[in-house]
Amino acid sequence: MEGCDVTSGPIAVLGAGGFIGNRVVEMLHLDGAPVIPIVRQPSSLVLPGRFDLPARIANAFDENALTEAFAGCDTAVIAIAGDPRTLVGSVTPVYRAADSAGVRRLVHLSTASVHGQAPLTGTDETTPLSDRQQIPYNNAKVRAERQLLRCGESGSVETVLLRPGIVYGPRSNWTGGLADEMLAGAASLVEGGRGICNGIYVDNVVHAIRLALTAPGVDRQAYLIGDAETITWRDLYGPIAAGLGIDLDLLPTTSASAVSRRVPMVDRVRGSAAFRLVPAPVRAGMKAAYRTHRDARQKVPSGSAVPTVTLEKALLHTCAYKLPWSKARQDLGYQPLVSFADGCRRSVAWLDFAGYPVHGGSAA
Predict the structure, then answer these.
(1) In the chain, what are the domain boundaries?
(2) What angle do CA 118, 120, 121 make, to 5 degrees?
(3) Contact call for residues 219 and 184 (beta carbons, < 8 A)
(4) From residue 31, how far is each of 5, 70, 302, 363 by CA, in Å?
């Protein structure tokens, strides 16, 4: 990756079996950096294991196992996904283990959702955070950030927090999940999808992580990161729909005023950002499941009911503000490497590779 100095020792990646963690392992390894994937169980090494790297097994709550896993590492990337208990409860054992192992810096993957799904105009890294939001995932991420900073007050490990927005790309649920919804006739837009999508292609996230591992003078700093372009949710849906041969104009649209402000428990799980961060690995049966549809042009069934819209989705689709990443540019030297158009092209190419019925095959 351009403009990145190699760290002075191995880079541990905790959560290496997940969507972003796995891509961190891939890109750092292919860039020549020494990488040590750390996963909770051997089955999580299906993807990172193909590089024959010195992987280690450790539960994010097991301080002793983590200390052994971090041994010899100069820096570590924390890309843990999970429920609120995991997101908050793993912070202290991870930090203490890194401190005991002599790790110099942790790069903690947080989220732009600490500012809410529809942040107010003018929001940036100086905006106070609240852990009393309506979306439980947001509150967990805020508390995780606060706990990490508290740990740093008495420890020697530097911490850098990155706040990406909607991370799309190959293996992302924002790519495969949207495709699944479209094929099932369950996709919809709120207010026509005209709201701003604070998106970031996964490789741009990894680029920011690499910069954060080596940038000087950034201890205890938080950074919003995103793509260069300002896009709408319709823009994000469009290339996927086109790739699947679906007419985007036929997707149901819902008024934001018609969406309940309550968050039913099932929607807290099924519609949460935490659920979307759970990796959807390429399964062997995926190709067989969709093969029969390959040559069929997919349409949203006429007369189908408007899909249920969660509060989170309603907020996301009505966002009116593009979050800035000027602080990351200034302190880290961050500049997105992949354009939105190229990120979409790569995403559709992955859908084709994964066995989705991409109309006419990939243009890659």
Answers:
(1) 11-167+199-227+322-338
(2) 120
(3) no
(4) 11, 21, 49, 26
Predicted pLDDT at 270: 43
Of 146, 112, 118, 115, residue with least CA distance to 129:
115
Task: Provide the residue type at 92 as one letter.
Answer: T
- Asked if 245 and 328 touch (Cβ cutoff 8 Å), the reply is no
- Residue 209 and residue 93: Cα distance in Å, rounded? 21
The token pair at 13 is 């990646």
pTM: 0.87
> Which residue in 323, 320, 358, 357 sits closest to 233, CA to CA?
320
* Per-residue pLDDT reduced to its tens digit, 334-351: 999 999 999 999 999 999
Please state which of the four CATH numbers 3.40.50.1100, 3.40.50.10490, 3.40.50.720, 3.40.50.300 is assigned to the domain occupying 11-167+199-227+322-338: 3.40.50.720
Identify the CA nearest to 7 among candidates 202, 212, 160. Answer: 212
As a whole number of angstroms, the distance between CA 231 and CA 333 comes to 23
Q: Give me 200's structure tokens.
A: 């970031």
Q: What CA–CA distances, in Å, run from 347 to 32, 177, 224, 323, 354?
A: 25, 12, 23, 23, 10
The two three-digit tokens of residue 298, written as one number = 């997919």
Extended strands (E) in 10-154: 11-14, 35-39, 56-57, 75-78, 105-109
Of all residues in the chain, what percent are helix, strand and coil, respectively (each to 5)? 45, 15, 45
DSSP, res 338 = S
- What is the rounded distance in angstroms from the CA atom of residue 39 to the CA atom of residue 44? 6
- pLDDT of 120-137, one tens digit each? 999 999 999 999 999 999
